[in-house]
Amino acid sequence: MHVLIVGTSVVDLFLDIDPDHVKIEDRKVTFTLGDKVPSSIKKSALGGNGANVSAGLTRLEIPVTFYTYLGNDFFSREIQTGLSSEGVEIEAETNKNSNSPLHIVLDFPPQDRVILANYGKDSHGFSPKTHQFDFMYLTSIPEYWEEAYRKILDFAKENKIPIAFSPGTRQIEDKNDLVIDVIKSSKIYFSNKEEAMKISNIQDPKSNIKDLLLEIKKLGPEVVSITDGPRGAYAIDQENNCFYIVEAPTKGHEKTGAGDAYAAGFFASYLYGNNIPTSMKWGLAVSGSVMEHTGAQFGLLTRKGLDERLKTFDNLEAQSI
Fold first, then answer.
1. What are 94's strand-pairing partners?
2. Are 14 and 103 in contact (CB under 8 A)?
C-alpha cells in the first residue's frame, strides 16, 4: 500500500502571549493598538496539513510519497530535512523566487490559539514522477489552487486511484464546482463539523449529526469522518451505519495538528483493513497524543506507541447512532 499525499508544508512558530496585554471574550482576542506585547517563543516545528498526515502515516508504517510546494529559503530546507528524517519520500515543486509558508501560532491556553498564516501568491501545479499509487490523500493548497486540483483530479481518474479528501480553508471558503467535483470523486471525506456544515446545505449547528453525515455522503464519498473537538467524532460507513465516539482521555490541550493526527490515525487503520469504529479509535489515540505536545508532529505515534496507547482505551468504543 503506497499513498500519495498532496498538500502544504509549513514551519509553525509558537508564541506565548502575556495574558495581561490581551482581552479574551466570546472567543475573540483583543489587542490594544500601540501596545508592546511581551511574548516568548515556545517552540518551532514542522506543520501543514499534508506534512502532518505524511509524517503520521509514515510512523504507522504506511509508505508515503508527499507532493508539496516549497520556496528557496531556510524554512524550505528545514521542511525537507525534517520530513526526510521521518522517512517521508518528498516530491517538491520548488519556486526559487519564493519563500515557504510560515505560521505564527499565538497560544492562549487553555482556551485556544490564533494562527497568523503567511502563504505566497504562487501558482501551484501537479506533475508527479510516477502513477504507481494505491491511494491519494488530498488536502489544503493555498492561493491559486484550482489548476493543481484539476490536474490532481484528472490524474486520479486516469489512473483509477481512490481519493481521501480533507479540504483546506481556501477550498471550503471558495466551495466552487471544482471542490464539489473532488468530493464527488472521493472515497473518504475528512473535516471538522464546522467545515462540513459549510460544505453542506445544513447550517443549523443544532441539527442532527446523522443528517450532516448523510448530506456529505450524498455528494459521493463512501466514508465520511467528522470531528467535533472536545465533543468527540462521528463517521458513516459504506452501508450508511453512523457512529459516534467520545473524546479520549488526554493530558493535553494543544489543538494545532489534532485534526490531521485524527485523520492520519483513522486513514491508517482504514488502509490496514479495519472497520470504521476501530478507525475512529485509532484516530482518537493519535490525536490525543498530539494534543499533549506543542507542535503538530511531535506526538504522532509509531505502531508500537499506538498499540500501547490503545491498551488504555479498553472501554472506549464507537457507538452506533
1. 70
2. no
pLDDT score, position 110: 67
Pinpoint the alpha helices (H) of the chain: 49-59, 74-86, 146-158, 169-174, 177-185, 193-199, 209-218, 258-271, 276-290, 303-311
Q: Which grid coordinates belong to 102? A: 510560515
Short-list 17, 88, 16, 15, CA closest to 48: 88
The rounded average pLDDT for each run of 10 residues, N- to C-terminus, in the chain (321 residues) is 94 86 86 88 89 97 95 86 92 82 81 79 85 96 91 97 95 93 97 95 86 96 95 96 89 85 98 97 95 90 96 88 91
Cα–Cα distance between 165 and 139 in angstroms, integer?
6
Check: CB of residue 96 under 8 Å from CB of residue 72. Answer: yes
Question: Which option is the CATH number for 3-18+41-320: 3.30.420.40, 3.40.1190.20, 1.25.40.10, 3.40.630.10?
Answer: 3.40.1190.20
Q: What pLDDT does 111 receive?
A: 67
Three-class DSSP labels, 56-99: HHHHCCCCEEEEEEECCCHHHHHHHHHHHHHCCEEEEEECCCCC
Distance of alpha carbon 26 from alpha carbon 266, whole angstroms: 32
**Cell 502544504 identifies what position?**
8
Phi, psi torsion values for 124, nearest 5 degrees: -125, 130
**Cell digits for 296?**
503538530
Q: 224 and 200 in contact (C-beta within 8 Å)?
A: no
pTM of the model: 0.90
Look at residue 57 in the predicted model and tell me its pLDDT.
98
Contact 123, 96 (CB under 8 A): no
